[in-house]
Amino acid sequence: MLELRDVVKTYDGRAVVNRVSSEISPGEIFALLGPNGAGKTTLIRMITDILKPDSGTIRLDGRPVGGDEKRRIAYLPEERGLYRRAKVTELLSYYGALKGMAASAARDASRRLLERVGLADRADDQVQTLSKGMQQKLQLCTALIGDPGLLILDEPFSGLDPLNVQMLEEILQERSQAGVTVLLSTHQMNKVEELCDRALMINRGYMVLHGSVPEIRRQYSDHAVVVRASGRLEDLPGVRSVEPFNGDLKLTLEADATPDSVLRALVERRVVIESFSLATLPLEDIFVKVVREGLGLDQGRSERAAEVAPGAR
Fold first, then answer.
1. Handedness of CA 31, 34, 39, 40 (dihedral sign)
2. Cα 223 from Cα 220, distance rounded (Å)
């Protein structure tokens, strides 16, 4: 488990990470979100022990990060680089050795990883002969070798074609099922919705959202429901308006109505209901809304964040 407790980092008297706390469990795919300059990279550098926090603690499985614990952490940065003249297998074996693997074990692991990402036939080629997409897959392998307990990926989908995006998604899910803690930093909100269990969003160093992805989306619902049904929906108690919505009907509720009360009214009217769900905002819209409104910036943590996940780990 990765534990962050009131982590603070300041530069020139300004807090770029301010009292950030969270717990990320083994097997969890966790999203770290925020606009450019929010403090995400600084936080990642503290988790990887590149930087030290000014105050607060960062622990992996109960032990401070640093020393031998760093070998259990793998980091794929957004800005990537490889030794271009090295051979593919030699490069991967080198990264395995850096993580404490014996030479034979590193070679075997390299072969397995290259097979997994479709680069087995390029094992003896120089890195500089690989296409950009192939180099990105090789860079991913440098993070995966050594079976890290914590895998940190910064914009891993950038530049990948749809086939390789799908492959990466499968690899992340495989690692999650094997008990690896995955920390994903990305601006691709659709991938967060598809892959991540929970999310933490920071802005100007402060926590502004923290909780499960479904809970966050429910918290920012439009006080409306989306219904697919046959029957009369006009003049339904508690419903202010009815409008078409992606082939269904969107029912905007009165302020004092609840989804449950509207559902009961539909049942009482004997409307045949095929589907009934909250009208939630896409995570991308929530991201933009939170950044623009600056939620929680005055007190270091928004009330909204506490509402989203009052018992969040």
1. positive
2. 9
Q: What are the structural domains, with CATH classification, of the chain?
A: 2-216 (3.40.50.300), 222-278 (3.30.70)
**31 strand-pairing partners:** 184, 199
Residue type, 76: L
> Given the DSSP bridges, would you call strands 55-60 and 198-203 parallel, antiparallel or unpaired?
unpaired
pLDDT per position as a tens digit, 201-223: 999 999 999 999 999 988 888 78
Which residue in this structure is represented by tokens 């998604």? 169
Helix axes 132-144, 103-116, angle to 10 degrees: 130
Q: 105 vs 101, 108, 126, 154, 235, CA distance in Å?
A: 6, 5, 21, 27, 70
H or E element at residue 91: helix 88-98
CA–CA distance from 25 to each of 59, 65, 124 (Å)? Answer: 12, 16, 38
Radius of gyration of the chain (CA): 23
Residues 6+ apart with CB under 8 A from 246: 226
Q: What is the pLDDT of residues 105-161, one digit of tens each?
A: 999 999 999 999 999 999 999 999 999 889 999 999 999 999 999 999 999 998 889
For Cα atoms 133, 92, 24, give the angle at the middle one, nearest 5 degrees: 80
Q: Identify the DSSP state of 297.
A: T
Structure tokens at 190: 């659709």
State the residue for tokens 């080629």.
125
